[in-house]
Amino acid sequence: MLDHYHYSKTCTKDRESKISTEKTDTNHNVDDFAAQTKTVAGHNLDPTPWHLFPPKTFSDETRHARAVKIIHCSYLACRYVINNSTRFPRLHSAVSTPKCPEFFRWIHHDLDPWARTRISMTHLDESQKFAAFRVVIVKGRLYVDMYYACVQSRAIFTIWGLVQLLRRFPGMVPDVDMMFDCMDKPSINRTENKDMPLPLFRYCTTEAHFDIPFPDWSFWGWPEVNLKSWREEFRDIKKGSKNLSWSNKYPRAYWKGNPDVDSPARTELLKCNHSRMWGAQIMRQDWEQEAKAGFGQSKLSNQCNHRYKIYAEGFAWSVSLKYILSCGSMSLIISPQYEDFFSRGLHPLKNYWPIPFSNMCESIKHAVDWGNTHLPEAEAIGRQGQNFMESLSMDTVYSYMFHLITEYSKLLEFKPTPPPSALEVCADSLLCIADEKQRQFLEKSAASVSSVPPCSLNRAGSDIIYSWLQQDERRKAI
After folding, report:
1. Geometric angle at alpha carbon 330, from 325 and 336, rounded to 5°
2. What is the pLDDT of residues 3-38, one digit of tens each?
3. How far apart are CA 132 and CA 16, in angstroms?
């Protein structure tokens, strides 16, 4: 009896030991597998080598919990997603499709380098050297291949925007294969790459670069600086712009931002901070301190109390342009070097007042003095800027994305196929991998199926674009 008891007890211990070992082995397997999985949140990714930033940290979870989350979000969250290839709902024949805004013509200009050569897989392979991630859409499903981490939550929110586009226009978005970079400065120089232009999507471009501008992440929110989706922010800013009548707004030019971003324009602008001498109030923004204080002093809807708002580029282009124009103040734009997808639709002295880089302080003072002696005209410029931004609704943003992707897809000379290392991404997987604050912002910016099709894109034609470019060169020469 004792021998039997001893044997049973020994067997039980052996089984427990075996289960414990198997559990440990399983945990190690899960950890090892997760350590090889790259996510849009930045897990297991290094910062882009062309724009370094501190590596991302994920200290809010245990190692094993994080591993389980990575695997679940990356491989299981999209398992039962309804296919977006369901066709766009048939509309009544009486529904007329409005024409797209004039600035949509830049789509053809941006894609013109590949109009004759088309885009081969070799183009994509070379573009990958400058990309943070790759997006492939096949039959309404979206796949992402991550190469490098994007700063903050840019990757999640950019890809979320693409997922919402598929939801907005189900079954309409064509199969496509695109390389994206998520950092600020364009990288495909036209002179250096003239023999083989490389297609690379990013948030801005210049006339000296082939980079293709695409709507930036902040249209769906920017949790790190507490900026809500564009629809919410514009609504609040426009409401805040009415707190004071034009005649009661401060007769000064106002700027608030971070000057410590290697920006020549902002460094020079600091010299203009003198209300009596230059008519300007320049405020330094410390985002780290502001985050600790709960963003109480950075609410954009409370920054529309001046007749004039200044826009100065940062490290490159800045998302602040759309918020500054939204105030309805007369925007003073310091000769921008970079362009985003919509800024090329702005007209000087109609939507804004141009400020040259040279003699910046004197030019700001001149604009302020002119506006204060021409109140109706200055107010009209501010109102036209605000009207332009109001016309840039999310419907317009999604239409631009749709037409840009559609026109780009026509240039591909190969059938888009997700690479083996790509993972399917959907709304559920992005919400799964996001942290709590990111998830709140994403959910509030979710789209629904549109009741109308995208706007009607104008025919391709370079003449009007080249005339705009010539006008711009003449303005710069003045």
Report:
1. 60
2. 544 444 544 455 444 444 444 445 557 678 898 999
3. 46
Per the model's pLDDT, the better-predicted residue between 92 and 396 turns out to be 396
Paired residues of 283 in beta bridges: 256
Phi first, then psi: what are they for 209, rounded to 5°?
A: -130, 155
Give the relative orientation of helices 375-391 and 360-373 as an angle to the nearest 10 degrees.
110
DSSP letters, 296-347, are TT--GGGS--EEEEEE---SS--THHHHHHHT-SEEEEE--S-B-TTGGG--
Instruction: Answer for the pair 398, 306: CB distance below 8 angstroms, yes or no.
Output: no
Tens of pLDDT, residue by residue over 49-92, are 999 888 888 876 788 889 999 999 999 999 877 665 566 665 54
Helix axes 2-35, 63-71, angle to 10 degrees: 70
Task: Single out the residue of 439, 432, 465 nearest to residue 78, CA to CA.
Answer: 432
State how far the Cα of 71 lies from the Cα of 39, in Å rounded to an integer. Answer: 10
User: Rounded mean pLDDT of the chain?
Assistant: 90
Question: Which string of b and e fits 462-471 if b means at least 16 CB within 10 Å?
Answer: eeebeebeee
Q: How far apart are CA 187 and CA 119, in angstroms?
A: 18
pLDDT at 368: 98
Q: From CA 431, how far away is CA 439, in angstroms rounded?
A: 6
Please give the average per-residue pLDDT across 122-143, as a whole number: 98
What whole-number distance in Å separates Cα of residue 437 and Cα of residue 278?
41
Residue environment code for 45-71, b if the CB has 16+ CB neighbours within 10 A, otherwise e: bebbeebeeeebeeeeeeeeebbbbbb
Q: Are 37 and 29 in contact (CB under 8 A)?
A: no
- pLDDT at position 295 is 85
Q: What is the mean pLDDT of residues 149-164?
A: 98
Structure token digits, residue 98: 């409005």
CA dihedral 461, 321, 338, 223 (to 10 degrees): -110
The DSSP H or E segment spanning 425 is strand 423-425
Query: In which residue are the tokens 């342009």 written?
Result: 321
**What are the beta bridge partners of residue 179?**
134
Q: Cα–Cα distances in Å, from 397 out to 263, 302, 338, 400? A: 28, 25, 19, 5
**Residue with tokens 């010539």, as numbered in its chain:** 470
Question: What six digits make up the tokens of 395?
Answer: 């419907």
Comparing 162-171, 313-322, 452-461, the range with the smallest average pLDDT is 452-461
Residue 185 Cα to chain centre, angstroms: 13
CA distance 455 to 399: 6
* Residue whose entry in the numeric block shows the structure tokens 């920006």: 263
Q: Residue 139 is inside which H or E element, if any?
A: none
